[in-house]
Structure formats: structure tokens, C-alpha cells
Amino acid sequence: MRHAVALSVGLALAQGAAAQEEALPLPSGLTAQVQEVLTDRPGLGLTYRFRFVAEGFAGVGDSEAELETVLADLVWLCESYALPRLAVTGPVPAQVVISLADRPSEFGVFDPDVTQVFEAYRPQEGACIWEMF
């Protein structure tokens, strides 16, 4: 059984590497690409982190409309990209974290030049349920 899980995780990571080239049109009009998928970082239970980059991403400004636009992009990435890939990666995680940045960055390293947002979701019945940190 361990080999089957390792094989499905390996296949998912190989698919993830190919998907890094895939352009993902977001509801906001931006186009995102997968930077990386991390499954080995601690979280609240099993956590998968999907990190995306979108050139021109400006983060969240002062208006509620800007916040809603960014949140719509994050939910779209979770439900349209991340959730369909969970079935092939092994056990369903307790949490999916979606991040969106204006450029690639190293996970866990603060870079003041990178604009980035992230939210955590609980996968449930084909939807991403927002989880407050």
C-alpha cells in the first residue's frame, strides 16, 4: 500500500511539474502559473500548499472590491486547480493553502519585493471552505 501512495504522489508531482508551464486564466483577468506544490511542510493536519505566480499581481489594495477580486481568484485556484489534483496525490489533506504572488519566491523566506497573499481552505464535497488562520 505504501508503494501505491508513493506512486500516486510521484505521478501527481510529475503532473505538477508539467503544469508549471500551464497558463491559468483567473476570474480577475490575470494569468497564473503554478510555482510549486508543497506537501511536506507542517500545517494543521495533512496540508498541501499550492503556490501560484501571476505577472502583474498587485495584491490587495484598500477597497473591498479589490479584496473580493483577489479572494475570488484564490477560491477559483483552489476549486478549479487544486481540488481536482487531490484525488491523485494520496490521502485527502485536512487543509489546502493557496498562495498567489507577483513573482516566484522561496517558501518561508520573507522577501519585501514580493507581493503575495495566501488563504487556507478545507476541501469538502468538491468545494473549498475558507479556514480562518
Automatic annotation (TrEMBL):
InterPro entries: DUF6497 (IPR045467). It comes from the Bacteria. Pfam families: DUF6497 (PF20107). It comes from Roseovarius mucosus. This is Acetolactate synthase.
